[in-house]
Amino acid sequence: MSTLCRAPSWQRRGFSLKYILFTPKPPTRAFSTSPRGPGLRSLELDEPRLKKLKVNQSRLMDELHHTCQWGTGERWGEQGTETGMRRLSLSDADKQARDWFVDATKALGCNISVDAMGNTFAVRPGRAQGAPTFAGSHLDTQPSGGRYDGILGILAGVEMLRVLQENRVETAFPIGVVNWTNEEGARFPISMMSSGVWAGDIPIGHAYALQEVGGGTATVKSELERIGYLGILPASYEAMPMAAHFELHIEQGPILEKEEQKIGIVKGVQAYRWYTVEVIGQEAHTGTTPFGSRADALLAASRMICASHTAAADHGALASTGILTLSPGSVNTIPGKVKFSLDIRAPSDNIIDKLEKHLKSDFDSIVSTESTKALPLSVTWQTDSISPAIHFHKDCIAAVRASANSVLGDEALSREMVSGAGHDSVYASRRCPTSMIFVPSRDGISHNPKEYTSPGDCAIGAEVLLQSVLRYDGLRSNVGN
Amino acid sequence: MSTLCRAPSWQRRGFSLKYILFTPKPPTRAFSTSPRGPGLRSLELDEPRLKKLKVNQSRLMDELHHTCQWGTGERWGEQGTETGMRRLSLSDADKQARDWFVDATKALGCNISVDAMGNTFAVRPGRAQGAPTFAGSHLDTQPSGGRYDGILGILAGVEMLRVLQENRVETAFPIGVVNWTNEEGARFPISMMSSGVWAGDIPIGHAYALQEVGGGTATVKSELERIGYLGILPASYEAMPMAAHFELHIEQGPILEKEEQKIGIVKGVQAYRWYTVEVIGQEAHTGTTPFGSRADALLAASRMICASHTAAADHGALASTGILTLSPGSVNTIPGKVKFSLDIRAPSDNIIDKLEKHLKSDFDSIVSTESTKALPLSVTWQTDSISPAIHFHKDCIAAVRASANSVLGDEALSREMVSGAGHDSVYASRRCPTSMIFVPSRDGISHNPKEYTSPGDCAIGAEVLLQSVLRYDGLRSNVGN
Ligand SMILES: [Zn+2]
Ligand SMILES: [Zn+2]
């Protein structure tokens, strides 16, 4: 609690938050991609020159693990780095990681802005003024999370700044790295919270008032103040416009590993809908009630769960049930009531619509097949959440694709994907061109201490991120934007 | 609490418990089944004379509803008798019903014995001494029970005594009515508790020590003492032998009603086994994990529940799941672990064995079909309870069959049945010839305030009970037993 009301270290060292970030500044013109060559602008970064901009894998991984000293979690292996992470948003550990981010990016020539949600923007000036092209992700983790989800995206952004600096690359427009606050929604229960505020989709008052889960009294606002990250820049896409947003992230699924591919070119985010389905039957004695006289709510629900799986597979979609409760809950009483959650996902809203329709019809058939004249079953649906499909921007997707091909040298090593989970890029994409880059997750495991992506795969992802940002900057420069 | 340590009314009125019940007593020889005829012994009760012994339907029903003033439960209809019952074993209401039973049977010429479990035996002397042929059931109910389960069996027994008295029937051997303590196992959690002690299958110390459910401190023994029903007769089939035990009971299932039949001739009680089945899969994100990479414990469990239903139907058996729990229980996490109860029942142990084997093989197939190479599922079975099939005695079954045919005049109006639920007759059958008589339950509903059997059906059942007891007494007389 000694940090209460104390300015963060980078403020005490004389850095002051700027409302207007892009102060004119003489660009560092003397740089080169080769020891002998002249200074080179990104619009002149042709394919061979881009290829020479190499991510330093051990530097990237050393720095990533260095930052995992703040909020170290559960140990799962014997190696020093084989622990998970527990770095809840706006905790002391999160503050330490944020301070590192500010110090590191400042040392790389960036200007830092913190907005009213604690979103922290490190911007490296370009030749011309304008909205920066951003690499962004998050430094907070789940309570029992790993070392890669979110963290890799930020660390790869910092590595990008280092590569630009050591190669003295001047970009056409500013390049930024953004650390979004409370992406996980684990401590304060709204995920992608602060990119949502930035995008204008979540009211800041609502976010500020959120209390931490588990009965504590801390709120988002009180914790932002406490750790010194309640910035003066409005949390808004208008106050901090972005030319584009690229996010390197672990896949959190098994596809790349299974297909032995290295990069996912993320075209968008799946649509999903969440429902609560309630099945009402009739309680009855398990011993005295023949099958023909039952209205077994659990048997009907079981058939629905099986049917949802089959129908989703037929539609190229997903269906999952994570919660199921029943009553009365006695070994020798047939359940009269069952409630279960249903989570359906598909790449397009159209498929979701069709699947929902299909399932409603399937469930109705199950109910009428299982009903007897005397004992009808019934089913009702409640829609709990609707998240439409997100389609990323074609220019950003093209930049990622070109970069993946350049880095991997083989189109077969990358694939187009749709993200199954939400990310800050969902909200970013509402206000600027966006895409994401996925790297393999071992065994598809995430939100778990054992979450793991190999150093080689992390470096490949970071290099694709670097190239994507530079390609986008080059594209803007070419179109004079 | 004013009843504490106070002798029951029938004790205060001078009746004393007898260890040896069958004191010689001059049999009432002057009686007749017709106003003009001579005294008639049951061995001489031929078919036409048996048919003349008629149950008085309104007397039976009036007395049944009269006793339901003690422990009246939830109202479900507008008529005076349209309430359920809440008469927990050894409660004040139970004591009042017991006192009524003692007074009523004593007034009908019975000797009363109360054993160490509070089992209350009312015995009407016969011409010869010997173990009585009993009609028995229970006066306790579920906390939210009805007016027929158990109660009808006792009231029909008392009506039987009335019919014998008003027709001045002298039986060959004594005829008794027994009220068994805590059949429901609702207040003290062992069902058929005191017939179990009588049969020597439940140790009396274990029964005595049982505490009431819901956190109270009362035990079976303290409550027996409190209400004055801790008798001095040992609770044992040796101290109180029975020549036979007949039990009239509501079906508690829908079969008789559905088939438009009036009497179930109960040949035995189904075998059942209870298991806890545990399915272990792998938690994973619902959005990022394709079907091919899942080990969905709930999907597998749902398939098992459906398969258990199909297999049981194929074997002419029943399978039911009344409890299902899962973890971790989050809308967007595929359950990694599911536990569910499985209750299988069949008329014979042989069918149960086959069904168990069939289901173990089915569940193994489901587990291997749903498993992927990287993510295996597993299933384990735990056996929680084994109750072998009970086969009632052929002579008792024959007596019930003959009585049903006599009362109904049409074989099509009765059917042989196997009881799906346990009853005191299960334990009785371990120590004497036994059978049961079922009457229809409206909508198959039981253990519910709405439990209902029509007055006509109650009277038919009571008349079949009366005849069955007399036929068995006649059989003993004929074989000199
Ligand atoms: Zn993330
Ligand atoms: Zn009963």
UniProtKB/TrEMBL annotation, chains A, B:
MF-aspect GO terms: hydrolase activity, acting on carbon-nitrogen (but not peptide) bonds, in linear amidines
Q: Gene3D superfamilies in the record, alphabetically?
A: 3.30.70.360, Zn peptidases
Under SUPFAM superfamilies, the record lists:
Bacterial exopeptidase dimerisation domain, Zn-dependent exopeptidases
* InterPro entries cross-referenced by the UniProt entry: Amidase_Cbmase (IPR010158), Bact_exopeptidase_dim_dom (IPR036264), Peptidase_M20 (IPR002933)
The alphabetical list of record keywords is: Hydrolase
Q: Does the keyword Hydrolase apply?
A: yes
Q: Which NCBIfam families match?
A: hydantase
What family, per the record?
Answer: Belongs to the peptidase M20A family.
Please give the name of this protein. Answer: Peptidase M20 dimerisation domain-containing protein
Its organism's taxonomic lineage begins at: Eukaryota, Fungi, Dikarya, Ascomycota, Pezizomycotina
